[in-house]
Structures are given as C-alpha cells and as structure tokens.
Amino acid sequence: MARWWDALLGRTDPVKPDLDALFALPSAAVTLQAATGLEPNGVGSVCFRSAEGGAFSALEHDVVELLATGEGPPVEEVRDSYGYTWLVVRRDPGALGGLVTDLHAVNSSLEVAGFGPSLLCSLVTFTGSASPGGGIALVYLYKRGTFYPFAPMPGRRRDNPLELQVRGALAGELKIEPDLGRWFPLWGAPGL
After folding, report:
1. What is the 8-class DSSP label of residue 179?
2. Minimum mean pLDDT among 23-27, 31-35, 64-68, 107-111: which range?
3. How high is the pLDDT of residue 76?
4. Tell me: the pLDDT tens digits for 21-30?
5. Which of 7, 78, 162, 184 has the most CB atoms lying inside 10 A of its own CB?
6. pTM to 2 decimals?
7. Are 138 and 174 in contact (CB under 8 A)?
8. In this predicted structure, what is the pLDDT of residue 45?
C-alpha cells in the first residue's frame, strides 16, 4: 500500500550510489583529452559533512593514515567556508587510476562505517587551454550516482559552454547528471 501512495505522490526510492562508477574516469579522461585537450592534473578530493563524535573522528583519522601509508600520497584535510570537509589527494597527473582508487577507498570506508549519508561528492580536476578559468572538475554526486562538469571562471562565474562541451564528449563514457539544476557550483573547491 505504501508503494502505491509513493507512486501517486511522485516519490521515488533514492538512487543507490555506485562507487565503482569512479573507475570509469581514466577511460573518460582519454576521451576528454581527445575532445577538449583537458588533461588530469593529479588532484582529486572527497567532500563530506563531518559528523560529531569520536567514532567519526577516529574513522576520518584512519582513512587519512590508510592513504598515507607506504607509497601512498599524502592526504590534505581542508574545511571550507560552508563547514564541509574535503580530503584532498595529490598524485602524479599520469596516475589517474591510482587517484581514482584512493578516492574510491575514502568513499567506501565512510560508507561501510555507516557514514554514507554524510558523503556529498568526489571530484577529479583537469587543466588545459580549453579552460580559461584554469581548471575544470568532473564531479561525482554520491547521492545521485551521476557525474557533471564544473568549470569555474574568475569572478564566481562558470564556463557554461565548456561544461556543455564536456557533457557532450563524455555522455557515452559516464552517467551524466541530466538535471542541470543539480550541477552545483563548488566555489573554492580544493584543487580548482
């Protein structure tokens, strides 16, 4: 009976995140470079809302330590002006596969520990002459299971033509967010 009411009222079940979709980024990067000249710059990040309490703080510390062990890259923790936490990973620009694996590990660790609802997005940044603002990010929306491009320009403006060009180039490679209203600006995101 509840399903019937949900259908009548237009409610749907939330999309289950598919973190494995992140592993499509290396092949999408090849397509993106061929179509636009944009190349990975080796920076990626995971954005989440920190939860209160010792369990979350311990998990956050463990995730940072896990990524920094051995040959892993150092992880930078940044809190933005909106109160969100970003775990920023920097790798050699040619190691996009490793960067994606690191981002997947952060997301998975938070999800498995029960903090999946705190995850907001992950992003991987690209640079090139096609981006007059200096960079563009491919953003993965955790709660939607989709990607979208974000191309900031000076003065808190967006390069909408470039974003649409990237959408067109990657439509067959990634699940692109169809609702442009959900292409949220990530002003001041680390790595951009």
Report:
1. -
2. 64-68
3. 85
4. 999 999 999 9
5. 162
6. 0.83
7. yes
8. 94
Tokens (6 digits) for 69: 């062990």
Q: Tokens for 148? A: 């979208």
Pairwise CA distance, residues 25 & 97, whole Å: 8
Alpha-carbon distance of 114 to 128, in angstroms, equals 38
What is d(CA 140, CA 110) in angstroms, rounded to the nearest whole number?
16
Of 41, 22, 37, nearest in space to 169 by CA: 37
Domains of the chain: 30-182 (3.30.70.2860)
pLDDT, tens digit, for every residue of 41-92?
999 999 988 766 555 566 666 666 666 665 666 778 888 888 888 989 999 9
Distance between start and end Cα atoms, the chain: 48
Q: For position 71, what pLDDT does the model report?
A: 61
Buried residues in 95-126 as b, exposed as e (16+ CB within 10 A):
ebebbbbbbbbbbebbbebebbebbbbbbbbb
One-letter amino acid at 99 equals L
